[in-house]
Each structure stands twice: as C-alpha cells, then as structure tokens.
Amino acid sequence: MNLLTIFLTGLLTGGLTCLAVQGGLLATAIAQRKEGVDGAKANKLLPIISFLLAKLIAYTIFGFLLGWLGSFFTLSLAMRIFLQVFIAVFMIGTALSLLDVHPIFRYFIIQPPRFLTKLVRNQSKSADIFTPALLGLMTIFIPCGTTQAMMALAISTGSAFSGGLIMMAFILGTMPLFFILGYSATSLSAKWQKNFYRLASIAIILLALYSIVGAISLSGATWLPDKKNVSNVSQPSQKEITIMITNNGYYPNNLDIKAGEEITLTIKNENAYSCAQAFTIPKFGIEEIVEPGTEKIIKFTAPEDLEKIAFTCSMGMYRGVFNVVK
Fold this sequence. Notes:
Immunoglobulin-like, four-stranded mixed beta sheet, 52% helix, globular
C-alpha cells in the first residue's frame, strides 16, 4: 500500500471521474444558499469547506468499516440503483425550487434543524454549514468507478486502520478540483448571482438526468446508446472472450455469444482509471473491480433465448452488449 500513489490517483484521475457523478451535489450545496442566505454577506468558503470536510470524514469512516468488515459491507446493485435515482430526484427538485417553478419544490431545500439553529444562533451560518455537510455525506452513496476501486483496495487490506488511511488519502487527492469548482462559483459578483442560479439549476437537472440514465443502464437495459462506443461492429461468436478496459470504455463492446454455451470472459485493465474498471453484468449480478495492471476471469452460461445482455461500469456511464445468437 503506497499512500502517495493513492493520493496522486485521486489528484490526477479521481477528481475528474468523481466530479462527473458527484459535482451535482456540490453545485446543489452552493445553489441552495439562495434560500434565506444573502450570497453577498455569507461566508463564501463555509459551504465548500463544510461539503469537503463532511465528504472526507464520511469516506474515512467508510474505509475504516470496509477494512474491518470486508466485502460484507458492499452495497447491492439494486440498492445502488435506488440511491442513484433517489439522489437524482432530489437534485431535480432542488433545481426546480431555485427556478421558482412551484412552491411545492421548496420542500427540497434542506434547512438545518431548529436545535442546531438555536445552538449556532445564526441562521445564515448554520445553513452554510449544515446543508453542504449533509450533501457531502450523501456522496458516499454515489461513488465513481475510481472510488470503488479504492474501496476494493480498502477491503483487501483486512485492516480497519489501513482501510481508513486509503480512503482518506484518495479523497484528499480529489479535494483540490472540487474546491476550485466550488470557490469559482461562489466568487461570482452579485451581478452574476442570478445567472449563476439559473445555470446551476440547468446543470443540476442535466446531471440528475445523466444519473437516471446511468441507473437505467445498471438495471440491464440494452436500448440505451453508448456515447463512447469503441466498437459498434459485433465481434465473431466465441466461447473465450477478452475485453479491454480503456479510459473511454470497453473494447470490444459489441460481442456475439452462442445460446446455451459456457462463456469464459477475461477482463483486462492495462492502465485505465476510468469508471470502466468497475465491470458489471446486471442480468447475472456480476460485479468485478479490475484495477489498473490486473485482469479478472468471469465465467457464465449464455441464456437459451436469443436476447441482448448489457454490461456496464458501476455508474452506467460506459456500456456494451452481448448478443445471444444461435
């Protein structure tokens, strides 16, 4: 275990891949300051620091638990789909509230509990701390593929202390990019605040829809187009198949397999740090983390019926399909 390597992984690759799926929650945390908080007077750094510290603490504790409990603590595929949709709905509700679409969407704006408000004695400050912190904690339910690889590493240590250190080092590496994004948004002049809220709302809705598409993909849907289609021409049918993991997805990602045959599938990852390293076949409940420089062998029996079987990364971002043929 090299903590420096783990930190650099978070700094150079984890920040970008995690920002793609968790950036919406950070944007939500910043945008929610519109409700009851004067953006010109509120501390610009409090929401960002609160979000990032809560995220760091949550993942460090989670890494501690992973090292202690091992694979027993892994979220099921169905639970991850549910959480991904739930958070997407929450983000859409927040965006519609910021756009003043209907008063009912105000219920999506998180307010600190009364006891906390009384304790802090400052509604503005408590809102700046509580809401972003809660959203930072929520990121643990939508980890990107690189984060899941770090989780697998934490599990493999069999040590609570080592697992906590791994997750802490990785999240520390991702924090600079999140901080730059958040501070850039909060440093806008008052003239641009209203425009920012509109743009943030649109961005939040787009990210939420993207999350829902990913959840649909995780359910095993085969009709979704692949935005990173590495090979759209199906490969000849064979019993032994090798799929390469790249930073742009899977190669090949359109393969024919014969009905009823036992398939030996080799997943190779030479040097890819994208979400694609979390390889998933929803229909069979197969989930494998293939870290850079490693490979995994998966065996399954093709169905008798002629159909399409989807495979995807753990967030539904990169996809492929097995075509069951005679």
